[in-house]
Amino acid sequence: MSLELIAKFAPFLADHIVRFGNKGSGSTSYLSHVICDEFILLMMKKLKHNIVKELKISKYFSISIDSTPDISHVDKLSFMVRYVLETGLPVERFLCFVSNPGHKALDLTNAITNTLKSHDIDISDCRGQSYDNASNMSVGISSAENCSQASMFFGFIQQLYNFFSASTHRWSILQLNMKHNANIIKSLSNTRWSARADACRALYNSWDEIINALVTIKDDIFEKCATRNESNGLLIKCKN
């Protein structure tokens, strides 16, 4: 029983269980499951109150949302908040579960706004959002795809990555040309906009090295014709 476990660290509760734990019906012991559930509910309300109080003092916060089915196959949306205490210590607190929020962007939006509103938290103070790879919340990616030039540019970055990563031999040629491995080209992500920023930064910092690697592969007579042609095609795109 959970109360017996807690009692090992709480002398008052341990004494109370010894005195009233087996009194039987008709005796007030405050140990029934109804009373225990009420205590848990009261503690939960107090804990939430303190979390919201801390968050409001810090003012600005970020949210982290993750959805997963529980043992009863009901989808649960876990809602976390992150903020900085007055001491300067960053903390992450679990706020609540939201049942059956739905998987569409509008459903998640309503679940988030309603949850914040129910806890009297101003969404205008939210400075960050994390959705654990929820593709329908990747607004930045969808916006970029509406611009043909941006879509072509990111497609080109992914083509470069796919070309070199498809072969350990090509990847080693790329690495030999790199001054710093940290700048090596990176793949995009369908859900994390930050991955695209990293890919753009790597392309910018290693542009000359990537060109040299493509030229090396294009001019290598021992490479397959298809590989040399693909490398030449990427070089043409680089110049355009």
What's the gist of this structure?
The chain has helices at 2-7, 11-20, 33-58, 105-118, 139-145, 148-165, 168-177, 193-205, 207-218, 225-239; strands at residues 61-69, 75-84, 90-99, 126-130. The chain has 240 residues and is of the alpha+beta class.
Account of the protein in words:
There is one protein chain. The chain has 240 residues and is of the alpha+beta class. It is 55% helix and 14% strand. The chain is built from ten helices and four strands; from the N terminus they run αααβββαβαααααα. The chain has helices spanning 2-7, 11-20, 33-58, 105-118, 139-145, 148-165, 168-177, 193-205, 207-218, 225-239; strands at 61-69, 75-84, 90-99, 126-130. Helix 9 (207-218) runs antiparallel to helix 10 (225-239). It is elongated and about 95 Å long. The N and C termini lie far apart (70 Å). The model has no long low-confidence stretch (mean pLDDT 84).
Quick one: biggest sheet?
4 strands, mixed
Q: What's the average pLDDT?
A: 84
Strand order of the largest sheet: 3-2-1-4
Backbone CA Rg: 28 Å
Tally of separate helices? 10
Beta content comes to: 5-15%
List the secondary-structure elements in sequence, H or E: HHHEEEHEHHHHHH
State the total count of DSSP E strands.
Answer: 4
Low-confidence stretches: none
Percent of residues in helices comes to: 40-55%
